[in-house]
Amino acid sequence: MTAVCLDLEGVLVPEIWIAFSEESGIPELKRTTRDEPDYEKLMQFRIGILKEHGLGLREIQNVIAKIRPMEGAKAFLDELRTLTQVVILSDTFTQFASPLMKQLDWPTIFCNELIVGEDGMITGFKRRCEDGKRATVKAFQSVGIETVAAGDSFNDLGMIGASKAGFLFRSTDAIKKEYPQFPAFETYGELLAAIREAL
User: Fold this and answer.
1) Active-site amino acid positions
2) Considering only CA atoms, which of 100, 84, 97 is closest in space to residue 164?
3) CA-to-CA distance for 3 and 13, rounded, in angstroms?
4) DSSP 4
5) How confident is the model at residue 166 (pLDDT cuts 50, 70, 90)?
6) What is the rounded distance in angstroms from the CA atom of residue 146 to the CA atom of residue 138?
7) Residues 99, 55, 112: CA angle, nearest 5 degrees
8) Nearest-angstrom CA–CA distance, 75 and 182
9) How many helices (H) and strands (E) in the chain?
10) How does pLDDT run across 116-163, given as a tens digit for each residue?
């Protein structure tokens, strides 16, 4: 059996932090896992910026409510789910993901969790496990489930590299140049065809 593991932001939906950066007018929050390989460092930076501006979970959720899946994403996911099991492995948070999962007909997602104070301010976060995407792929493999993976950012490279087939999707030129061993695609049609062949 083979399961497909997909990243969420940048692959199926726009980047939440970029959308929030644009809405809030705080350009520093445009920094994502495409730019910063160290996820812990990136999140501490984000939490510091939010605190500095007095912004909490509610403000981010208000922006997420306006986000729609990328054009063609739902049709791609629907087709993929007729072929095999699909699991979304994301470094987003349960408090962010639900409205987006609803729009995608509730695919399975494994993600992290925010620590939020009574005042609604984000004070920290709890990772599902260390190196969560790669660890999940390895766990699937340990129970006889092969994986095919696709993502766009530094934090996807572990699961892409650990899978029997792995692909970059709408990634940056820098990542594509640094990891030429991973086929890179720009359209859902191309990615679907590559996954179909790998299954």
Assistant:
1) 7, 9
2) 84
3) 20
4) E
5) very high
6) 9
7) 45
8) 24
9) 9, 7
10) 999 999 999 999 988 999 999 999 999 999 999 999 999 999 999 999
Count of alpha carbons within 13 angstroms of residue 4, beta-carbon side: 26
The answer to whether the beta carbons of residues 114 and 122 sit under 8 Å apart is yes
Type and span of the H or E element at 185: strand 184-185
| Strand stretches in the chain, DSSP E | 2-6, 85-93, 108-116, 122-126, 146-151, 165-169, 184-185
As a whole-number percent, the residues of the chain with pLDDT over 90 amount to: 93
Contacts of 148 (CB under 8 A, 6+ apart): 2, 3, 4, 5, 163, 164, 165, 166, 167, 195, 198, 199
CATH fourth-level superfamily of 2-13+70-112+129-198: HAD superfamily/HAD-like (3.40.50.1000)
Which of 133, 183, 125, 127 has its CA nearest to residue 154? Answer: 133
70: left (phi over 0), alpha (psi -120 to 50) or beta: beta
89-120: per-residue pLDDT in tens? Answer: 999 999 999 999 999 999 999 999 999 999 99
d(CA 140, CA 89): 12
Is the alpha carbon torsion for 55, 23, 14, 184 positive or negative? negative
The whole-angstrom separation of Cα 68 and Cα 100 is 7
State the average pLDDT for the chain.
Answer: 95
- Domain boundaries of the chain, sorted by first residue: 2-13+70-112+129-198
